[in-house]
Design a protein that fits this description.
Blueprint: H1 7-17, E1 47-51, H2 54-61, H3 68-76, H4 82-93, H5 100-105, E2 114-120, E3 123-129, H6 133-148, E4 152-158, E5 161-167, E6 176-181, E7 184-189, H7 196-200, H8 212-220, E8 227-232, E9 246-253, E10 257-265, E11 294-298, H9 309-313, H10 315-323, H11 328-331, E12 340-346, E13 370-377, H12 381-389, H13 391-396, E14 400-407, E15 410-417, E16 420-421, E17 424-428, E18 431-436, H14 438-448, H15 463-466, E19 470-475, H16 476-485, H17 495-508, E20 512-521, E21 525-534
Antiparallel strand pairs: 1-2, 1-8, 2-3, 3-7, 4-5, 5-6, 6-7, 8-9, 9-10, 10-21, 11-12, 11-19, 12-13, 13-18, 14-15, 15-16, 15-17, 17-18, 19-20, 20-21
Helix pairs in contact: 3-4
Length: about 525
């Protein structure tokens, strides 16, 4: 199977997992003049990845083999456990990447780090710290011979260092090349081998180590990181290509969390970032239902969302609002205070027998599967009532009916459309609530009569909503419990068996605690933080 793998996949295998324990240490690598592999990665590569300490990353990754989910997936591969499965893979590639000592015995210097530059298509080369040049050379010789059939080796001095190549007999070009230089080795495959000398002699200002956008992003981001990636122009990853100058992603693996942080310079003015400026906000989380498994809070100024609301509501609603001469900014956004919150709960009557629903509300009513409650505070309560009265004629333009009704002495606005109930809304004093279905609105109105109490977000996750301007918490444990509580009828024909299978999957994932997302801005850059929280074993 490895013989059929693409060259760049083989390259990654060679650099990060392709070393074997062989030979005695006889020749130590020269002291590296550069302390980072980024010195040999071109700043104009399509994407680059750098691991400052390969040993630290490997040891941290080893923790995840103890997750119940990892063991469950390993058993699907006929392995007794994740540890046994990973150990089997490590034996095949020749070095245990979970062990710093094993990598050093294979000739790698994990403390010098590693890097990969993706040049487009299937072309990529890597940089790896060298502890023992002779051992590492013998390692790659065995790999080239066993994996690629490249049994013919040669060596020559080239600008930048010593180039060692491995080729198949009578092949026109080498299959694999190693260029040893100043304590590092550059590894390339196929047609990229002759170009390794170019990268080994890169002028510092053309290397990733002196990329100003990367340097600025790393200064803005927390210093704690196990790897970082640089993507010039975004190249369609996270940010549309051409929408920004660059995207920097860092990753850190903690005892109970895996965190990815993104930083991208904002191409527009500082004023256009006003929507991501934090403001003093009232505490409204206590008005959300306790069974909310998805909670979001926006601490920014709603009035600054004037240019964003069309993207949030979609083209159909946007067109109807514009045709109705309804000023969304003046009538709604300008009248709300910071601190808008929303909570999503699983419907106790959800029917999952047909699989996951379509994500298009024009075809499937989402409130048959989930319930929604959103609460905001108005600047002036009188302004809210006048705005709500203007909504019914606008709603008809995009196929919805909004009908004023009385519910337990409270004026509400009941919404319906072709697929059933929509999101209903009402005002209680200076609070505005949007909820679906009607039972959720009724419960929300009762809560709004008093002061907010507590929070539906678990104590250990609340920080994710306090610091960023936009914070989101997906409580996987609460969602799992809600799914388990669904009756067998919710799964359709054969629901008992389907539920049992689903519960088995959920129990295998119960050490995945939550996912949190934060969005903010810093020094004219947009930053995002995505964290997967796990239960340490």
């Amino acid at each position: 199977m490895l013989r059929r793998a693409s060259p760049w996949l083989l390259l990654v295998l060679f650099v990060f997992a392709g070393c074997s324990r062989c030979g005695d240490k006889q020749t130590s690598a020269p002291e590296a003049k550069s302390s980072t592999p980024a010195r040999y990665l071109p700043r104009d590569a399509q994407a680059s990845l750098v691991v400052p300490d390969l040993g630290s990353l490997g040891e941290k990754l080893a923790r995840f083999q103890n997750l119940k989910l990892a063991n469950f997936l390993a058993q699907l591969q006929n392995a007794q456990s994740a540890e046994a499965y990973v150990s089997s893979v490590m034996r095949q590639v020749g070095v245990d990447l979970r062990s710093r000592q094993a990598m050093e015995a294979a000739g790698i210097e994990p403390a010098r780090g590693a890097g990969v530059a993706f040049l487009g298509g299937e072309q990529a080369f890597s940089v790896l710290g060298v502890k023992d040049e002779k051992v590492l050379r013998d390692t790659f010789a065995k790999l080239a011979r066993g994996r690629l059939g490249a049994s013919v080796s040669s060596e020559e001095k080239v600008p930048g260092g010593t180039l060692v190549t491995f080729a198949r007999p009578n092949a026109p070009q080498p299959s694999l090349g190693l260029l040893f230089t100043e304590g590092f080795v550059l590894v390339g495959a196929g047609s990229l081998v002759p170009r390794l000398s170019t990268y080994a002699t890169l002028p510092p200002e053309k290397s990733l180590a002196q990329e100003p956008l990367l340097t600025a992003s790393l200064k803005r981001l927390p210093a704690e990181r196990d790897f970082y990636a640089f993507l010039p122009g975004g190249i369609g990853f996270l940010v549309p290509a051409g929408a920004t100058q660059a995207v920097t992603v860092t990753g850190s693996l903690g005892e109970g969390a895996v965190t990815l942080r993104v930083d991208t310079p904002w191409p527009d003015t500082q004023e256009s970032l006003a929507a991501l400026a934090p403001r003093q906000a009232p505490e409204l989380l206590g008005y959300l239902p306790e069974d909310s498994f998805l909670v979001a809070r926006y601490r920014g100024e709603p009035s600054q969302l004037g240019g964003l609301w069309p993207y949030l509501v979609g083209p159909y609603v946007t067109r109807a609002v514009q045709q109705g001469n309804f000023d969304m900014k003046a009538e709604v956004l300008d009248k709300l205070r910071p601190g808008v919150v929303a909570g999503v709960s699983l419907s106790p009557n959800a029917q999952l027998g047909g699989g996951l629903p379509a994500l298009d509300p024009r075809r499937t009513n989402p409130f048959r599967f989930v319930h929604l409650v959103a609460v905001a505070e108005a600047r002036e309560s009188a302004d809210v009532s006048s705005t709500l009265e203007k909504v019914p004629p606008i709603a008809r333009r995009f196929g919805a009916e909004v009908e004023p009704r009385e519910l337990e002495g409270q004026r509400i606005y009941f919404t319906s459309y072709r697929q059933g109930e929509g999101a209903h809304f009402a005002a209680v004093g200076d609070k505005v609530v949007l909820a679906a279905p009607q039972a959720r609105l009724q419960a929300a109105l009762q809560r709004l009569q008093g002061k907010p109490e507590g929070s539906p977000v678990a104590q250990e996750l609340r920080g994710a909503l306090q610091e960023p301007v936009l914070g989101v918490v997906l409580d996987l444990r609460r969602l799992s419990e809600a799914v388990k509580e669904l009756p067998s009828q919710a799964w359709g024909i054969g629901g008992f068996a389907i539920k049992a299978t689903t519960v088995r999957w959920l129990e295998a994932m119960d050490d995945l605690r939550a996912v949190t997302l934060g969005l903010s801005q810093k020094e004219k850059a947009v930053q995002a933080e995505l964290t997967l929280w796990v239960v340490p074993r």
